[in-house]
Specification:
This protein has 155 residues and is mainly alpha-helical. 63% of the residues lie in helices and 8% in strands. A hairpin with a 7-residue loop joins β2 and β3 (106-110).
Length: 155
């Protein structure tokens, strides 16, 4: 599959540097886009987008997750979750059932179709990471994980 290297006419070297950390910021932005490009193209063919994939990704790892817990993990509002969640439920990629101990709480679980879509989209991303880690070597991969862990801890 051909990669689109210039979204909106920009590429990594086209932006002026205003701060010594701009290179790292650009690598973060463009790296994310490079990692998710094929997954996003696949999701678009399924009529889905990045927010749908984030929901499927979390639910795949936390079956029977309560909607409140999903909101907390994703760090979004209930309103922001509503539209993508409803589409996933309508398309039968997720199921929702009442929690036995808390009838006001709904628990989410992937259907087999949801599992296939999540796995294929995530596989695209895992492949990009694996190739990058192979190129960077074990110490580069470990350093990347350490940096991303430190950034993630800011949440």
């Amino acid at each position: 599959m051909a990669k689109m290297s210039q979204a909106a006419g920009l590429h990594r070297a086209s932006l002026p540097k205003l701060h010594d950390l701009d290179v790292a910021l650009e690598l973060m932005y463009y790296g994310w886009r490079g990692m998710t490009l094929e997954a996003d193209e696949y999701l678009a063919k399924q009529g889905l987008s990045r927010p749908h994939h984030r929901i499927l990704y979390v639910v795949a790892r936390r079956p029977d997750i309560a909607i409140g817990s999903l909101i907390e993990i994703l760090g979004i509002s209930k309103q922001a979750l509503n539209r993508p969640l409803n589409l996933l439920l309508e398309r039968k990629l997720l199921t929702s059932k009442r929690a036995p101990e808390q009838h006001r709480s709904k628990l989410l679980r992937l259907t087999e179709a949801g599992r296939r879509i999540e796995q294929k989209a995530s596989d695209h991303e895992r492949r990009v990471l694996r190739e990058a880690f192979d190129r960077a070597g074990a110490s580069g991969a470990a350093a990347w994980i350490a940096v991303m862990g430190a950034i993630a801890d800011n949440n």
